[in-house]
Amino acid sequence: MLSSLTRHRAVLVCALPVVALLAAAGFAPLPYAVAQPGSTANVLGSDKGKPVITISGAPVRKTSGELRMTTIIATGPSADVFLGDVVDSWFRTDRAVMPRDSVYPAGKSDQEVERRNLEDMVTSQDAASQAALDYLDEDPAKVKVTLELADIGGPSAGLLFSLGVVDKLDGDGAGGDLTGGRNIAGTGTITADGKVGAVGGVSLKTQAARRDGATVFLVPKGECSDAQAELPKGLRLIPVTSLKGTVESLRALNKGAKVPSC
Q1: N vs C: which end of the chain shows fewer Cβ within 10 Å?
Q2: How many Cβ atoms from other residues are within 10 Å of residue 216's Cβ?
């Protein structure tokens, strides 16, 4: 049998490589991205002095209330994330740690990612306009929609853009605002035929929404559980799968009728 002193030395020798690895990990960049709640923007309002939504070729309503698209901010693909950043984020509800490759395409520079995000935003805006005009049976050859939102990329504002167009042209369909005067936030991609898609980061987006005064959050139905994970007090979730269903839910909310919930 090993003596007590020998056992202690053996434990110490075995522990040294582990300590060395932990020390190295503390100073070596890790393949993660750290995200946090980002900005929100009211698509019914203005951004940098310009209306977010401009419509010509059809009468436009004066709206009240807000429709806020939401964002997250993540460390860039070339940013160094260390063990301390990861550990700190694990203990915070306003931070999320994600594998970098799940946030950014592998091998892409910051500039390439930014360019791709801006391209996705343009594609999303086109789909959002088409979905809204099709829903309202408006002729896209006669009604022109221009969407402008500076410094924000990606496709996740699609649903909110479509809702903004619907509110400006038709409101709730009965003379009132689609928002009912509320501050409504949300997220979700949209296809030209009005289908809502998942986006990711919803638990952070709900925090951004509540921070900026929203009381209702529209979330892609498949991401309900993620949205509920860190749901801020005072924020009501409404799951959505299509533009038509979202409009119907908001109309029901305005009437005090039954509204889908997560």
Answers
A1: N
A2: 21
Q: Which amino acid is at 64?
A: S
In a 3-state reduction of DSSP, which class is residue 91?
A: coil
Amino acid at 76: G
Say how far apart CA 96 and CA 207 lie, in whole Å.
12
Structure tokens at 229: 């994970």
- Tell the residue number behind the tokens 């020390």, with chain if given: 23
Give strand pairing partners of 74.
35
**For the chain, what's the residue count?**
262
* Strand ranges for the chain from DSSP E: 32-42, 46-47, 50-51, 53-56, 66-74, 96-99, 144-147, 183-186, 189-190, 196-197, 216-220, 236-240
Angle between helix 83-90 and helix 4-27 axes, rounded to 10 deg: 90
Whole-Å CA distances, 42 to 16, 166, 176, 259:
55, 14, 18, 23
pLDDT in tens, 57-86: 999 999 999 999 999 998 878 788 888 877
> Tokens 């690895």 correspond to what residue?
21
Q: Is 156 exposed, middle or buried (0-12, 13-18, 19+ CB in 10 A)?
A: buried
Residue 260, helix vs strand vs coil: coil
pLDDT of residue 32 exceeding 90, the answer is no
Distances (CA, A) of 138 to 2, 24, 143, 166: 86, 61, 7, 11
Q: Which two tokens stand for residue 109?
A: 């520079």
Give the domains, in start order, of the chain with CATH numbers: 37-79+109-255 (3.30.230)
Token digits of residue 137: 């049976």
